[in-house]
Amino acid sequence: MHTMPSVHIILAAYNGSKYIREQLDSLLAQTYPNISIYIRDDGSKDDTVSVIRDYIADHPSSKKIILLDNGGENLGCPASFYRILQECPPADYYAFCDQDDIWYPDKIKWAVEKLEAQARPDKPGVYFSGCEYYTDTGEFLRHSPVQKEHIALTDVLYYTPASGFVIVFNERARQDLILKVNPGKELHDRWLLRGAACFGTIIPDTRRSATHIRHSDAVTAEDSSDSNLLRSFLKNEIGGTAMTDSKDCLAYFQQVFGQKLSVSQQQTLSLFTAKNTLPRQLRKLFYPHRLRARLAGEIAIRILFLIGKI
What is the pTM for the complete model shown? Predict the structure, then answer.
């Protein structure tokens, strides 16, 4: 008799008392029954922990919600997510969860079906779906962009096709990409997608499985026109350290996985991580593969290559 695969939902909370109850409602409303919810609070200054404990007390028949002891540590993102994955028991699959989103009922069901059908258990398998973006006042912003059917390393160098809250991954991905190595400071979604692109399978799903709440004070140019997005990229990426930090993360990924990478993967990473020279800048400037999904982002990164920022 086939056992229904188990799924651990990995929820890293911080100052989320206003929204986390609604999120937990949507998790318990999943049509897929074999789930457990592991929550780690990252030292909230509000009453997030009290809300979670009250929620658990209000649902005594449910043994699905486990609040982990944070040891008084504030780890930040993504380290809090990584800590949960280090402390929770094994499962077949894992799903990242933010504290202020709303999941649609079939989210986990769809993910498990796709992973069971398309991912090999002996290789990292990472699934992601689409989503919808709303403000915290209920105003619709946009749909997530449709992604390529086949996602390669070049697609996850300076771009993340999916945010963490729509990602579900298998035990092999947890072992190979998180438990057996130190993921460092790279965001959990990009780290997993890059690892799966190199060593396993990425499974995109065009269906939208969740609403992501963009708080009014955090709505960015990403939610508006390409022209605004381009201005934002140029302001933040030329003037700030975001892209040099991203280049450092690429170099760290290359260092961690070393000889496990294929020759072509090593060559690709070396082009984008090695010290700039004029020939290397020109090769990156005229690199034949698109590196970002939106035109504004692609223009911005080519400008950064041209001026030698990255």
Answer: 0.92
